[in-house]
Amino acid sequence: MGNSKQLTRPPIARFALVLMLWTGVTVAPLLSQNKRNPVLEFSTGTWCQWCPCGDQVALEEVLRNYPNTIVLAYHGPANYASEPFSRFAGNTVISSLGFNAYPTGIIDRVTGIISRSIWQSWTANRAAIAPTVNIEKVYSSYNPGTREYIATFDFTALQNLSGEFRFNALLVEDGIVYGQTSNNTCTPGQTYLPNYVHDWLVRDMMNGALGEVINSGAWNANQTIRKTLRYTVPIPPAPAPDIVPDSCRVVVKVYKNGAPLNSNAEIQQAEQWPFISEAYVAATSIDHDELIYPASTPVYYQVRLKNMGALADSYMVSLRSASPQGWAHSFHTPHGRFEAGQTDVLSVNPGDSVRITIEMNANGIVGSGKALLDYTSPHFVAGTAEVRLVTFGMKTLVVDDESDGHESYMKASLERTSEVYGVVRSKTVLPFATQLHNFESILWMCAATLPTLDSTEQKTLSNFLDSGGRLYLSGVDIAYELADPSSPHYTAKSLAFFTKYLHAAYIKRDYNSVAVSGIANDPISHGMLAIGIASGNGARTINPSAGRFANQIAPADANAASVFSYYQWPNDYPAIRALHTNGNVLGRVVFMTFGFETLNRDVERDTLLARVLSWLRSPTAVAESPADAPNTFALHPNYPNPFSRNIEAATRLSYTLPSSEQNRHVSLVILNQLGQQVKVLVNQTQAPGRHEAGWDGRDEQGRLLSSGVYFSRLKYGRHQAMSKIVVLR
Known about the structure:
With 729 residues, the chain is mainly beta. It is 13% helix and 40% strand.
């Protein structure tokens, strides 16, 4: 919206995306309210020469980066003679919020009135905070003859709350063409735009400037309160054009009443819907659409199919799979159990929903898969709900810590190898944080997400490295956020994580170099020259003008070494690799302050990934670690790993006993994923030094064990160590 052509565009398609979400043509998890929808309320006016700049920031900065933000434009001052859109019911909200300069804004009613230059940063902060209330439209109808609108909403507390909570319902119209005063800054060369398109325009406060009380006092977690709204669409006074219901939406926001309203009345959550309900609309929602589980355990997903339309409808439901061969899939409805490929028909009244349970069973086969629940109706309503499963025991887990699709570059490079891998979002990993040792390597992609790693994610990665995990971490501004005191996300704990677990020292943030070079003889970067990290990749470009950078770091201790240098500055470094020791347990980490996705070409990404994985998985050399010294206790990685069962001594396990303790009893056993002992390999007294034992994948009775993940456990006096073994068919 930086020029007049964009400013005078036809009604924008942005809200069409919202309509798609509620017509059932998109994947259902997008409907889940586990994500906050930040609210930007800003003052504007057709008379205001700077106000197109506010529109520009809202569209190009706020919505482009946080598309689920709900934008509300209040035209004022209230009843101002030169502003036709300022005369609406509840226009006292403008003075109640304290607007007296145009354009200025408020984010979620916690910021106070702020300039447009910081709308985006505050929206980012609020987007990272979970909502405390769930809002659901149960039913709505509109009579065009009487202009009467009736709707019922359910408000559910997601945690224990106290105080007075209110809900505001707003009638918001998009695509209104009306003249706009401007200036040469916002619209170069133009001072008046006769065909300016106004979006987000608040036409009416449907239940008053301050809304209605939902609850006062204690509001317990999971308690739902239902409210009904009755409203008649007014005819606005001339010269404002009449309201076009087809171009309108209803915005409902819940806030905690407090004073002042612009900084002490926090919005808990907001939702929006088309003003006119279509006759036939359906949508699905899923509490958890992605899980990590043992391959031997069936998993279940609860899907809710809801009739969002004005009339009853029936839906033909079926399930298809995209999973490894041997996995089983089924779904359960009120009519019984159905296998993948079978069909059930469900009739649902307006506003009602039906629960469908999807079952996925990997049958002990390690892998990554998904099931897709399709629904169609005779009235051309169709959609798909997708659920995904990654099993423990895979070599590589990709963690996607952002929402812009940048993990596709990592997936493409992995697909060009024989690597068996799974991809999950970071929020999926956290409940299974203590079980991540079931993966050999984790490739954690932050890209340009903000904040890059929160405190829970830092703890998760700390535990993974302490258990001997192998980690590749990449993303923009990670070093700055964790280790720079000027960062809003910096804490003493984040600095400790940065230093102790990433083994990095922070130098500075503002590195806008577009390329890095390999370091001679480095096992990862040797010979890799002038890899582009900030050019030629469209959305993948690091944009210093937006305040996001690759950072300069350095090794923090003797266990770390630099991997790349900046092309123009060969003594400055953006990445390190390090050995991480936790007692006798050894982990490895490769940390890069530029995103994997920012590399320009496939060959560069493929080469980097192959070398990173090779280094992460390479056995520890004597020069790197004292683990092989005769006075050090160690259980070395078995080889090969994975291995095929039913071969004589199919894998070899080696270990070192310290010379400081003479001839103690040695126990080396194999455990399954439940911690149960399935095979004893060594049970005797042994002398110090290096020893070996073999295992053919059988238990004590000589039976072949199923494919999957097992653990070797070595005990020697007061010493103990464990290592992961992957058994294949």
